[in-house]
Design goal:
The chain is of the alpha+beta class. It has 29 helices and 13 strands. The protein has five domains: 27 residues; 205 residues, Orthogonal Bundle (Clc chloride channel); 193 residues, Clc chloride channel; 121 residues, Roll (CBS-domain), CATH 3.10.580; 96 residues, 2-Layer Sandwich (Alpha-Beta Plaits), CATH 3.30.70. Strands 9-10-13-11-12 form a five-stranded antiparallel β-sheet. The longest helix has 41 residues.
Length: 700
C-alpha cells in the first residue's frame, strides 16, 4: 500500500512538472512583458475566486433550503419547534467532520490564510480548501448565526494557491496571488471591490503595502466583483431611505457613537476570548464530548431563533428590518444580545464561520439603539437610518481593527456616498479605542495564541533563533567625516554601493550618506565644493546591530527605518565596525527557516516516532536524526553550541523526558529550537543535515 502511494505521488509530481514545463515554454513564446503576464494571471485569479465565492453563496442558500424546508418537512411531527432542532443537526454534522479530519478542521479562517502567506509562500492544501468550503455552508445554512467572510477568504486564497501551484509560481508570486484570491473572494461575497483590496492589505498581509501586490489585489478584486454582479445581481444588499446627516453639530453625536461602539467592540472581543478559554481549556478538558457541546450550542441557537427568527444565518435581512424601522427597540436590543452571546459560543465550540457579518449586525443594532435613545432622552431628531449604517462600519472596524476596509465595505455595500464623513469619523474613533485597549487585531491575537508572531506578512519568530554572528556580513563603505565633497562624489561614482558610512577620528560611526543627501546640493556644486565635507551632508544617528542580536530584531529595524543594510559593530572592542547585514541576506535566512518549520510540520508524525539508532532519510545524502546530548552539552544553550556554524546542522526540535508521578512513567515533551534553552541530561536533539555532518557530530 505504501509503495503504491509513493508511486502515485511520484507520477502526480511528474505530471505537474511536465505541465509546468509546457506552460513555461508557452509563456516564453508569448511576446508579452512580465508585468502583462502578471496582470493577466491576477485577472484569472480574480475570475476563479469570484466563481468560487458565487458557488459558496449559492451553496449556503441550497443548504438553507435543504435544512429549513426539506428537512423540516421530514420532521413535521415537531411542528413549529422543528427550527429548534435544525441548528443542532448542523452542529452535529460539523462535529462529525471534525472527528474525521481533526487536523484539517483546526486550519480555519482568516488566521490560516495569514499563516499560509507569511510562512508557506501562500501554499494552502486543496483538501483544506474543500473542507472549509463544506463546513461553513452547513453551519450557516442550518441557521448558524455567523458570517461567510472568513471561510470565503480561505476559499479564495485556497483556489488561488492551487492555481499558483499548478502553473509553478515561485513562493513570492504565489504569496501575492493567494492574498489576492482572498481579497477577491471578499470582494465577490460583499460586492465590494475596494473592500476586498483593503481586506487583503490590512488583514491577510498585515499592512504590507508593495506596488506589485497592490496592483494584483486591485485586478483580482475588481474581476471577482464583476463576476459576482453578473451572476448574483448588482443591487445593494441593504435597502434604506436616503440618509440624513444634519448639520455639523451632529458630527459630535457620530463621534460619541464611535466611542460607544469602540467600547462595545472591546467587550465583544474580551467576551469571545473568555468563552474560547472556558470551552477549550475547561469544558473540553473535563472530558465533555465535543459533539455533545456542539449540539447543545445548536439547540441554544435554535431556541433563540424559535422566538426571534432574525437570529438565524448571516443577518442581512434583519439589518434591513432595522433600517426599515420594522422592529421596536426592545426587539433590536434582544437581537443584539443574542448575536453577542451566540457567535463566540458557535465558533469556540467548533462551528465554522466568520465575524464580519455579526460585527455588521451588532453595529446596526447599536447605531439604531443609540439614535433612538438619544432622541428620547434629549429630544433630538437624529436619523436612525444614518446611525444604523455608521454603527455597522464602526463595529466592523472596532472588532477587526481594519479602519479602511470597514469604511470601504460600508460605502460599497450601501452604494451611498452621502454619509461618508460621519462614517469615517466613527470608524476611526472606534478603531483607535479598540487598538489602544486590545493592542492588536483579533486575527493577530489568534495567531499569537498559536505561537506565531507575524509582522508585515512575515513570521518574525522564525528568525529569533538566528543571530547576526551566524550569517554572512557584507563589506561596508567607510569614509572619514572630513572627506571633501569632490572626493565624496568621486567615491560614489566609482563604488558599486550607493550607501556610505562616515567615521570620526576614533573610528566610530557618526553618519550615513546616500544619493538622497547629495542630490539637493548638486545644483550649487561650484559654490559649495570647497566648503562642504562629508560630515555636513551625512544624516546623524546611524542605527547599528551587534553580533549577538537576533535577526528578528534586525528585520524589525529594516521595516522601521526602511533601509537595505545595517552596520554591524563589536562593542567589546571600542565599537569596531565588522561589516553590514543586508535585507536580502536576512530574507534568505527567513526563507531557510520557513522551509525548516514547514519540514517539521510536514514530518511531525515521523519526528515523534523517530528513534536514535535509525535516522530518517529525507533526500539523497540528507537525513533527520535524533541524538542524545552528551555531558559536554549539558547546561549549554543552542546559541553557545553553534551547531549550524560548526557542523552545518539545523536543530528542528528538542525532545525532553519528563518523569510523571506515582507510576514512575515518563512522558515525552517536545519543545522548539529556542536558542536560549539550556540543555539538560535526558534531552535529545532532532537534527537535520547532511549524513556526513550528522555522523561527525555523533562521533566527533
Amino acid at each position: 500500500m505504501e509503495k503504491e502511494k509513493k508511486s502515485y505521488l511520484i507520477a502526480s509530481l511528474n505530471r505537474a512538472k511536465a505541465f509546468r514545463s509546457f506552460l513555461e515554454s508557452l509563456v516564453a513564446k508569448v511576446p508579452f512583458p512580465d508585468y502583462t503576464i502578471f496582470s493577466i494571471f491576477a485577472v484569472i485569479i480574480g475570475a476563479v475566486a469570484g466563481l468560487a465565492a458565487v458557488l459558496f453563496h449559492n451553496s449556503i442558500e441550497f443548504f438553507n433550503v435543504l435544512f429549513f424546508e426539506q428537512t423540516a418537512e421530514g420532521l413535521f411531527f415537531l411542528g413549529a419547534a422543528v427550527v429548534v432542532v435544525i441548528p443542532a443537526i448542523g452542529m452535529l454534522i460539523q462535529s462529525t467532520m471534525i472527528l474525521f479530519a481533526p487536523k484539517i478542521s483546526e486550519k480555519r479562517g482568516v488566521a490560516e490564510v495569514i499563516k499560509a502567506v507569511a510562512m508557506r509562500g501562500g501554499y494552502i492544501p486543496l483538501r483544506t480548501t474543500i473542507f472549509h468550503f463544506l463546513a461553513p455552508v452547513i453551519c450557516i445554512g442550518s441557521g448558524g448565526t455567523v458570517g461567510p467572510e472568513g471561510p470565503a477568504a480561505q476559499l479564495g486564497g485556497g483556489v488561488a494557491s492551487k492555481l499558483g501551484n499548478i502553473v509553478g509560481l515561485s513562493d513570492s508570486r504565489r504569496r501575492i496571488f493567494t492574498a489576492a484570491g482572498s481579497g477577491a473572494a471578499i470582494a465577490a461575497i460583499f460586492n465590494t471591490p475596494l473592500g476586498g483590496v483593503f481586506f487583503a492589505l490590512e488583514i491577510i498581509l498585515l499592512n504590507d503595502f508593495h506596488t506589485p501586490t497592490f496592483s494584483a489585489l486591485i485586478l483580482a478584486s475588481v474581476t471577482a466583483s464583476a463576476i459576482s454582479r453578473v451572476l448574483l445581481g448588482n443591487e445593494s444588499v441593504f435597502q434604506f431611505a436616503s440618509p440624513e446627516i444634519g448639520g455639523y453639530e451632529s458630527l459630535y453625536w457620530f463621534a460619541i457613537l464611535g466611542v460607544v461602539v469602540g467600547l462595545a467592540a472591546i467587550l465583544f472581543v474580551r467576551y469571545s476570548s473568555a468563552v474560547d478559554y472556558l470551552i477549550k481549556k475547561k469544558i473540553l478538558k473535563m472530558g465533555v464530548p465535543r459533539w455533545l457541546l456542539m449540539i447543545s450550542v445548536g439547540l441554544l441557537v435554535g431556541l433563540s431563533g424559535f422566538y426571534f427568527k432574525d437570529v438565524f444565518g448571516i443577518g442581512y435581512n434583519a439589518i434591513n428590518h432595522i433600517l426599515a424601522g420594522n422592529h421596536i427597540w426592545k426587539i433590536v436590543l434582544i437581537l443584539l444580545l443574542l448575536k453577542f452571546i451566540l457567535v463566540p459560543l458557535i465558533l469556540s465550540s467548533g462551528g465554522f464561520g466568520g465575524i464580519f457579518a455579526p460585527s455588521l449586525f451588532m453595529g446596526a443594532c447599536l447605531g439604531y439603539l443609540f439614535a433612538i435613545s438619544t432622541n428620547y432622552i434629549w429630544d433630538l431628531n437624529l436619523d436612525p437610518v444614518t446611525f444604523t449604517l455608521v454603527g455597522m462600519g464602526a463595529m466592523l472596524g472596532g472588532v477587526n481593527t481594519i479602519p479602511i476596509t470597514a469604511i470601504m465595505i460600508i460605502f460599497e455595500m450601501t452604494q451611498d456616498y452621502t454619509f461618508i464623513l460621519p462614517l469615517m469619523l466613527a470608524v476611526i474613533i472606534s478603531t483607535t479605542i479598540s487598538r489602544i485597549v486590545l493592542k492588536r487585531s483579533v486575527h493577530v491575537k489568534h495567531l499569537e495564541e498559536q505561537g506565531y508572531q507575524i509582522s508585515e506578512g512575515k513570521e518574525i519568530n522564525l528568525l529569533h533563533s538566528v543571530s547576526v554572528s551566524e550569517i554572512k556580513l557584507e563589506k561596508i563603505e567607510l569614509i572619514p567625516e572630513t572627506t571633501s565633497l569632490p572626493q565624496l562624489i568621486a567615491k560614489m561614482i566609482e563604488s558599486p554601493n550607493n550607501t556610505f558610512y562616515i567615521t570620526n577620528s576614533t573610528g566610530i560611526l557618526t553618519g550615513i550618506i546616500t544619493e538622497t543627501e547629495l542630490r539637493p546640493i548638486m545644483t550649487d556644486y561650484d559654490s559649495v565644493k570647497e566648503v562642504i565635507i562629508a560630515r555636513d551632508v551625512a544624516k546623524p544617528n546611524v542605527i547599528s546591530v551587534k553580533m549577538d542580536d537576533d535577526l528578528d530584531y534586525v528585520l524589525r529595524l529594516f521595516s522601521k527605518w526602511n533601509v537595505d543594510q545595517i552596520p554591524v559593530i563589536d562593542d567589546t572592542v571600542g565599537y569596531k565596525i565588522l561589516g553590514s547585514v543586508t535585507r536580502q541576506e536576512v530574507l534568505s535566512v527567513y526563507n531557510r527557516e520557513s522551509l525548516k518549520a514547514n519540514l517539521v510540520d510536514g514530518l511531525s508524525k515521523d519526528l515523534k516516532s523517530l528513534k536514535e539508532a535509525t535516522p530518517s532519510a529525507v533526500a539523497a545524502g540528507y537525513s533527520i536524526a535524533e541524538i542524545s546530548v552528551t555531558q559536554e552539552h549539558i547546561g549549554k544553550s543552542l546559541s553557545e553550541l553553534k551547531l549550524r556554524n560548526k557542523f552545518g546542522l539545523e536543530v528542528l526540535m528538542i525532545k525532553q523526558q519528563k518523569e510523571l508521578f506515582e507510576d514512575n512513567t515518563q512522558k515525552e515533551n517536545i519543545i522548539t529550537s529556542d536558542p536560549h534553552y539550556q540543555l539538560k541530561e535526558d534531552d535529545r536533539l532532532v537534527l537535520f543535515g547532511k549524513d556526513k555532518n550528522i555522523e561527525r557530530f555523533r562521533n566527533p
